[in-house]
């Protein structure tokens, strides 16, 4: 009987370990001394008026090692920042949109090598700008049409414009994009392209037969229990949104600024669900998304995307083309990928992938260290949000803590 119980115990322990490997990052009693430097460095930026406040999350080996809030979510009201505050994550939406596209490839409904016009006929017979002068514009036909790969890697040359309405549909926006001449031959160079990611959102709608926002909710957010990730925060969520700030025009310090694309109520569902940058979220929700990617596409027993598709998304797909906003970067499908760690990425491993947002939020997963780093701030006006001193300080302190 003792031998039988021992065998059962071993089986039980094995099952527990297997379930832990499939689970999302969970809070643990981290060594406070190890991560005290993270909070100290973030607090220094609050004290000198660089940021109002921050939420930082560090996860490793499927567990949250550190989740800390410092400063204020609202400076005027002196409302303390909390770990469950929501932030506009802006372009951190892009990898989520890319995951939706690759999920459809897993199902055989599209291929990233396909021409966009296969799914959106309005892109047939596009023009390319060959020469542009003060009073003249010479257009020619490109040697090939743009592909989904081009959109995923920001190498399409697709033009962009400011939406004339806050409630434009994706179909309307993308129809307008399709009529703009390409700025360079597809695949020849890299240029950050919000219109390209928005076009991918429209492809998701056409191929899946669902509204883009419904696809994300039903196929990604619900299965991953990302309960606070949304284009339209509900009243309770809106009360938890951290205020956004920019450098004050006079007197130093910070002054409040609006989230640029939000007009009217935050929860107004008529507002365009922008695939390139419309989501609000929390540090925990973002960490769950990245834990799924580190787990090879699965979280808590739910398969979101294939391991093979994630491998495509998170490795360099742009060859030797210069990409990104900091040196040593490359582009995968929807993700930035660290090719040669240096400067602000010096503490990360080659192959680390992630994305930043317009108000200097950051999210990165380092597969070699099995590490997730999430920085949530709402600070406009950095010369380069991807290369902000706040990001560098957070990553240096977090990675150093892991070595202790």
Structural write-up:
32% of the residues lie in helices and 17% in strands. The protein is an alpha+beta fold and 404 residues long. It has two domains: 24-98 and 225-403, 3-Layer(aba) Sandwich (Beta-lactamase), CATH 3.40.710.10; 112-214, Methane Monooxygenase Hydroxylase, Chain G, domain 1. The chain starts with a helix and ends with a helix.
How many distinct beta strands? 17
| Helix proportion range | 25-40%
Binned strand content = 15-25%
Number of DSSP helical runs = 11
Q: Separation of termini?
A: 44 Å
- The CATH class of the largest domain is identified as Alpha Beta
Low-pLDDT stretches: 1-7, 9-22
Structurally, the number of domains stands at: 2
Going by CATH, the architecture of the largest domain would be: 3-Layer(aba) Sandwich
**SSE order, one letter for each helix or strand:** HEHEEEEHEEHHHHHEEEHEEHEEEEEH
CATH topology of the largest domain: Beta-lactamase
Radius of gyration, in angstroms, nearest whole number: 22 Å
Specify the overall morphology.
Answer: globular
Sheet of most strands = 9 strands, mixed
The CATH superfamily name of the largest domain is DD-peptidase/beta-lactamase superfamily
Task: Assign the structural class, choosing from mainly alpha, mainly beta, alpha/beta, alpha+beta, or little secondary structure.
Answer: alpha+beta
Mean pLDDT: 92
């Amino acid at each position: 009987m003792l031998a039988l119980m021992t065998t059962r115990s071993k089986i039980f322990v094995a099952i527990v370990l297997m379930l832990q490997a499939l689970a999302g990052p969970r809070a643990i009693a981290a060594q406070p001394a190890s991560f005290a430097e993270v909070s100290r460095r973030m607090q220094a930026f609050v004290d000198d008026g660089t940021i109002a406040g921050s939420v930082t999350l560090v996860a490793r080996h499927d567990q949250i090692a550190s989740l800390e809030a410092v400063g204020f979510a609202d400076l005027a009201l002196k409302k303390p920042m909390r770990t469950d505050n929501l932030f506009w994550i802006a372009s951190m939406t892009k990898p989520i949109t890319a995951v939706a596209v690759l999920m459809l490839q897993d199902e055989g409904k599209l291929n990233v090598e396909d021409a966009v016009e296969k799914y959106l006929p309005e892109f047939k017979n596009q023009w390319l700008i060959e020469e542009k002068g003060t009073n003249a514009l010479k257009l020619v036909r490109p040697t090939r049409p743009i592909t989904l790969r081009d959109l995923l890697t920001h190498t399409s040359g697709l033009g962009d414009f400011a939406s004339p309405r806050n409630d434009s549909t994706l179909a309307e926006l993308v129809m307008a994009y399709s009529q703009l001449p390409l700025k360079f031959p597809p695949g020849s160079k890299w240029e950050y392209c919000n219109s390209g990611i928005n076009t991918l959102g429209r492809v998701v709608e056409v191929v899946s037969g669902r509204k883009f926002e419904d696809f994300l909710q039903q196929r990604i957010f619900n299965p991953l229990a990302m309960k606070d990730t949304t284009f339209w925060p509900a009243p309770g969520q809106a009360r938890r949104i951290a205020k956004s700030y920019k450098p004050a025009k006079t007197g130093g310090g910070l002054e409040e600024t609006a989230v640029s694309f939000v007009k009217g109520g935050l929860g107004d569902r008529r507002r365009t669900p922008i695939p390139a940058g419309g989501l609000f979220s929390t540090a925990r929700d973002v960490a769950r998304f990245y834990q799924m990617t580190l787990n090879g596409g699965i979280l808590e027993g739910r398969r979101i995307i294939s391991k093979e598709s994630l491998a495509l998304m998170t490795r360099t797909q742009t060859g030797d083309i210069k990409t990104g906003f900091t040196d040593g970067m490359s582009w995968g499908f929807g993700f930035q990928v660290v090719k040669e760690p240096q400067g602000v990425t010096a503490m990360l491993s080659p192959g680390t992938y992630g994305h930043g947002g317009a108000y200097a939020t950051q999210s990165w997963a380092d597969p070699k260290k099995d590490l997730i780093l999430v920085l949530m701030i709402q600070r406009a006006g950095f010369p380069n949000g991807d290369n902000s001193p706040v990001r560098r300080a957070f990553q240096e302190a977090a990675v150093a803590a892991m070595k202790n």
